[in-house]
Amino acid sequence: MADKVNIVLVHGAWGDGSHWRHIIPTLHNAGHKVVAVQNPLTSLADDVDRTRKLAESLDGPTLLVGHSYGGAVITGAGHAANVVGLVYISAFAPDEGDSLGSIFARTDQPAGAAAIAPDAQGFLWIAPDKFQESFSQDLDDTEALVMALTQKPISGQCFSDPSGPPAWKQKPSWYLVSGQDRMIPPETERWMAERIGARETVELDAGHASLASHPHEVTQLILTAAAAVA
């Protein structure tokens, strides 16, 4: 156990820590201390702060794993002194000054964007009847329905907040591309993986919720990164 790094799993927009439910048991059984953060999704700064504090509370070297918007979060939270690596799962990997909106502006909007709408408080939701086709087209109907009806909305501010200096410039990173992603264009994911100099890039024939539809492959990439930074 002494050589096993801690692993902090960081969910994205429209989700929470339970999105990692198929990943957690294997990492735990491999001897890692695993924690899935529950971020408020109220601003990028709030989410970075919550994740950084959780990472810093752990004793020893820690690997951060972010899905989707969670990639922007680990890019900031990764500056914690005990963080030794970053894993991006179909995730944003911003440079300093980037926002999610500016990254989206590089290409045509992904198909899933049409299903997103704000509520009266400025939080963004995916229409429940469009959730599966937008976010999780390769999940079965039951799992996709539960994801849709338990979605956690994200503040629209999170899409305009600029990122600070990126931890991926100082710490090793890994990237997983979802080749059938309808929430982040796959070509944008490939570009980010190349830009951050990922030590390894894996591409799956998967939708955005690859952490649920392809848990074995996602877990293997995390374990590869954990072994490399141990």
Automatic annotation (TrEMBL):
Name of the featured protein: Alpha/beta fold hydrolase
Organism: Rhodococcus daqingensis
Keyword annotations from UniProtKB, A to Z: Hydrolase
GO molecular function terms attached to this record: hydrolase activity
One Pfam family hit: Abhydrolase_6
Segments forming domain AB hydrolase-1: 7-219
Tagged with keyword Hydrolase: yes
Family annotation (PANTHER family): AB HYDROLASE-1 DOMAIN-CONTAINING PROTEIN-RELATED, ESTERASE_LIPASE_THIOESTERASE DOMAIN-CONTAINING PROTEIN
Keyword match Hydrolase: yes
